[in-house]
Fold each of these.
Amino acid sequence: MAEGTPDVKEARRMLAKGICIAGVGETEQGIISDRGSFELLAEVTRTTLDDAGLQLSDVDGIVTAFSFVESTLMHSTTLADYMGMKPGYFASVAVGGATAPLMAVQAALAIDAGLAECVLCVRGDNTRSGISSSGMIAMAREMSHGAYEAPFGLTTIGGYGLLAQRYMYEHNVPQDALAAVVATQSEHAALKWNAMLRDAVTVEDVLNDRWIATPFHAMDCSLVSDGAAAFIVTTEARAKNMKKKPVYITGIGEGFSHQYISEAESVASVRDGLGRAGRRAMEVAGITPQDLDVAEIYDSFSFTPLIALEGFGICGVGEAGDWVMEGNAKLGGKLPMNTHGGLIRQAHLGAMHHIVEAVLQLRGEADDSAKTEFNGGNHQVPDAKLAITNGSGGILAATSALVLSSEPPSAA
Amino acid sequence: MSEKPAYNKPLPDLRPEDATFWEALKEHRFILPCDDAGKPFWYPRKYAPGTLSHTSWTDASGNGTVYTYSTHFIGPSKAYKGDPPHIVALVDLDEGPRMMTILVKDEDGYPSLDPEDVTIGMKVRIVFDDVTDEITMPKFTPAA
């Protein structure tokens, strides 16, 4: 393992406690109009506790996110109350799409500080069915500056579009590269039991789809869905007595470049800002991109993983489109990416499902063939040991990344 | 020139610190906020980003270059329903800062520029669109 700067060593010191994910769970995803927001969170908590072989009383910390439907400024304690918990540690994290990996970091920090030993990280919402029209408008306006962006009719999709079109212009990236991301992930979603969109689509299908905001067709955009997912963060010592093999958090990193897309300095500065999260996580883990077996990369739009792959150093600058078009991101390719279908084919719950899928991959449990009632298939990457996963909030504004490993950090 | 419809699009959130900027626009003057070294920045704030020095204001040319754009086929709210696509752009102003705007065809800020008439790198200049009695929006149109 490389020496590392003092801050990297400090992150390694914490993770050397064997901070791990000992249980995961996810509900059905899609249009679930018969269940409310807290109900979905409690449902997935039951599934996740079962996975780990725990009782609710074993959990002494809770980290949640936010809801677009249930308005509360105290989300974590509201859920704790709903479920009848008296946790010693509680936090609500709200950094948009970066929230899920940050929830894991928050749990790790709490464990390191002695505030809790077994932390439930849970996020879910009935965003699709439960949101009001004013809530929808507020959500759409959330990423725009209220005075200097929103009045020009900017949408979140168009905000990403501004950056994507400049990226494509600077690096001569064809529209086919974006479509190749969608086609690749659609093949993976076809195998994932709870993916909303189960049909495999081709590059041609994407190119012929209706425009939303250039350079994005409808199929280039992430879904709006109901559903929940959760994971339990604890220590190796505690996980020994649990049901499943722990998956270790061996690297953490964060990066920020701008809040509003008008403020983004350049394509390069955005790439560096979000890239810092992944590069830093890999530095802490003492690995290089070549060591990775699977990549669950945030994909709010088809363009989003391309710039992340470059920022993380998995691909050269401007080369991610070719890399995906060559088939490297497919199951069976050099580094299978978004093996669950991602936000554009499975469901949108920030990066929660990216983390859950990475854990399932590293436990060797990503074969859904037995789930015949859901027509599941095998999306397992054979012998996967190391994964990177990330989430980005805003328009690639704030990014958090994790390296997950089937082996504890000392052996990594 | 097509007849200009009544304005039903979102208006800017107005904070006290933004008043100088919008008052100038109302008089069809385009000004930029500057830090204590005289360097213009975007977006307007009472205190300059990075140093938190007091903001001063400078007259700007209203000339710039399209850094990037996205043609929106769907707008952010029902007010855009039935409209032709609108082009949201980031424009690099000659004075340095980059700002968001919407690209339009005519001098009075309406209608939207046709998507085939926009390219990254094209020169644009400001037009003042008096969308209400109180608000004038800084829109941009091709320079030539």
Amino acid sequence: MVSKKKKKYSSGEGAQFMTRKAALKKLQLSLKDFRRICILKGIYPREPRNRKRAQKGAGGIKTLYHTKDIKFLLHEPIIWKLRELKVYQQKIRRARATREFGRMRKYLRDYPSINIDHIVKERYPTFVDALRDLDDCLTLCFLFSTFPSLKKVPRNQSMLCRRLTVEFMHAVIAAKALRKVFVSIKGYYYQAEFEGQTITWIVPHHFSFQPQNKDEVDFKIMSTFVEFYTMMLGFVNYKLFHSMNLVYPPQLTAGFSPDSEKDLIDEHAYVAERIAALNISLAKVAGANEVEELPEIDIFQSEDGDPQKLEEAKQEAEKVKKLKTMFKGLKFFINREVPREPLVFIIRCFGGEVSWDRNHFVGATFDESDESIAYQIVDRPSMDKQYLSRYYVQPQWVFDSINARTLLPINKYLMGAVLPPHLSPFVDKIKDQVYMPPEERALKDPDFKPLDDEPSGSDIEEASDEDAEEKNEQESEEDGETALARQYQQEIAEDSPSDDEEDGEDDLDKEKKKLAKEKKKAMAVSSGVPFKENPYQKQIEDKQAFRLREKLVRKKHRNLYKSMKAGQEKRKKEIWLLRKKRRLHDEKVKEEKKAEKRKQKMQAFEAATA
Amino acid sequence: MSVIKKKKHVSKKNKKAWRKYCDIKDVEDFLEDQRLEERIGKFETKPDSELFVVDTAGDEKPEVTDVKPLSLKQKKRALLNQTPKCFEVLLPTSKVQDPNAKRNHVNPVGTKPTALSKLTQKRRFEKGAYVKKVELVRKNKKIALAKKRKAKEIEKTFKKNLWGDELPEVKGIPSTLCDDFVSQEAQLHNVLPEKRLRPKPPPPKTVATRAAIETPHPGVSYNPSYQEHQDLLQEVVQHEEKMMKKEAHLNRVTTKMFSKVTAQDKENQWREEMSAGLPQPHNPATAPSDEETDNEYKAINPPVKNKKKDHKARRKQRERIEERERLKREKIEKKKITDIYKLRKLQSSISAKEKLQAELQAKRTAKRQFISATAVPALNAHKPPVREPDLVDPTQLSGDLRNITTNTNLLRDRFESLQRRGALAASKLMMKKKKRVKSYFKPGHKVTEQDIEKYVQKMKGKKDPKKTVIKK
């Protein structure tokens, strides 16, 4: 018997994939609906290994989907909802065409909405999964919250985005989760940490209106993405608020509720405005305790047992703890020209109190005349009226302080000063073998002390500098003397045994003495020499062990290892070279400065005498 | 003597032959019975009352009572309830059930409000019999609307702990089975196939691994350090140079491959080609001199003559070939001997070559891996745009937050990022094409030069009298 001939592409890669057209046919959906459901359910087109086979022999590049993905979509109850919507759309279209606007309005009112919460749950089975995928969601929501009503975007979407993003910012403030800020040309890069997940997002700069070019971006698709992301962000917000015992949707505390005497026309708007100001802490769930601070990291003896890593982790935790309360008890006043929202958000994230001009935006808590204000954030070259009790700093001081994780000295950030560069905190940590100029190193770790700490600026400082130099000179002289003395002593010490030999100079009884000596030696109890432990012994042994281990590297990886090592050496050398260059340059500059100063002094002296 | 019917051996090879010689009468009878049963109903299922009659009268004959026969009118009235004879044909006679269980229901006559019933209803409505009912309907409508509105609102309040314990329903598994005592397998076993959770293949590698938000280059800071900004600019320059090189290559390979010809040259070429073989006009300068020809026919390509070689020539040729062959062999033999002494050199050259090849191979694989790690996924005939480094113009940098300007479109950035990650197939946005409207004048409305002239003159004519009037 001849078995039935197997049809081509009925198994293997040909059966695994499906073109978009075939998928549309299978699901009985229009392209529009298919796109929508794919975005909502997280189904992506695939790139096959062998395109020719996957396309069943057809040429060109077609959009392919996994057959399993499409089968997965087939079971989605939303598909039926989409078909229902289609009927509704037809009815609306018909009513509009026949100019029966009453009916049209009725259809629009009763237009069924799709509930997609089960999809959120399905795509993100755990909360951490949702947090991990929040980057895109936040960026798009923040972006859409700035949009006016657009043609292809549902009317209330930008409003909803705005609401959700404000809620999320409140959650970040309450959790003190912000870690890094970077102000770029594109917008503000923020990085927060929730449940061990780092979330990075971009918030665009606040410009009044930016027209969107129609032929660059498909608004319909982006709006569908946003539709899913708003749903996801809403549930994430709810969960975050709950974990911090805050009432969701956010409410003002009783103290800030509107006065009962005045009748407000729109109480909801009143509350929403105050919440959007980000300046007031939200109401907590009644009877809930304060959220407990996370306990200190327990030290587990991991299998690697790398104490250095553990120590690093501990230090990091300590730093983060300090960072969280960096602005605690400090009062900030934001001037009119400074972007309000980002700064309020940032300052409140680290425990500071903020206010602004009462007429500028609702939600101001104290006036400019308040004497307890510690810092006023200003972005203009000068001000007419200044208070002595506070520092006038530029906004970059706030950003740089957060990235440095300490309150930086303000002298470089004072009003009208030329600012130091705003460095990115998102530098790759893996690339640690990079040359860092001493200024940057000082910014990165506060323990670092540049070798020749030369303060620059005012005359007073220069004078002190001079004093220091003189001291240095004296010290160096002293150092020279002590060194000489030490050398002398050493020489003496070396010579002494030979001196002893020279003293006992007797030619006659040489042999006898020798014999006696030998006998004595045999009998004598020599004084014990304390076992001197070589301090570097352990290091040497470690090094040897390391070399042995290096030999055990598999042949497969040997070349890679070698190249890695060579690269490390090369980079080390480069860094060393650059440091040396810098040192020489600094010394030269210093010498020149000194010479110039001396010259000036001489001139002044000559002028005085003459 | 009993006659034993001889079994006739027949062929049942074909379907036809099989049918001819196969006795299937019993089967057909059975089926016929079954069909009859279906038509008139099964014997077993019929109730006893239908099959049997309890004989209570006995053998006695019923007494004939004097009953007044029905009048004609009464007879007709009694017939009214019955189905008319003329419609009996339409009634089903078979007891076979309707295969379409959900046949469209047609309302019987009388359920639709007639003109008369409408009138009575109206009368009753005016009387006030329906006031309560109307109010109730209105109230119900209001409640339903409010409910709907509230449901829509709840969707936007997100008041549900999606990742908590209190889940609304475990997907697919019936609530009666959601018990600790029922094993997981048993729970899943009882799920309807269409409600069963389908395994979803993992997302594509590019979607899973590529970061949604790439770490920004430190040079894009609003107030970058000099070095970092220079680095960024350098990156931009390198990218731009690469693009220019690519473009130049494309230009060289396509447009520049063909030599350019001026229009005049083309015309000349065309003329020459088209007039090939045509009799040329007589030109004494180019014409061949008549003196040399002696009116003899001469082909342009004379026929080839098969000139035979003689013995000597053949021998010479053979000898030449043999000599050449011998020399070649000798050379090879010689080389064999010398190669023995060259062995080490050969080996070293081979090893050097191999080393070089291995190096090149490593380089190639590294390059391939790099490309596969960073390449944009090909999901469509269109390719997603290559990521370009952000350019921050030095003139753009003001150094303070107040005068910040931007030249990047964040939305486009996101859109392209999605495409580069493979979450979206890159596509060219199709704009709606504007209809091309051909404009023309109706013949009667055409305005020609003459018309204009006429008009101008007319105006002049009109103006002139005015002027004269003024002069007067």
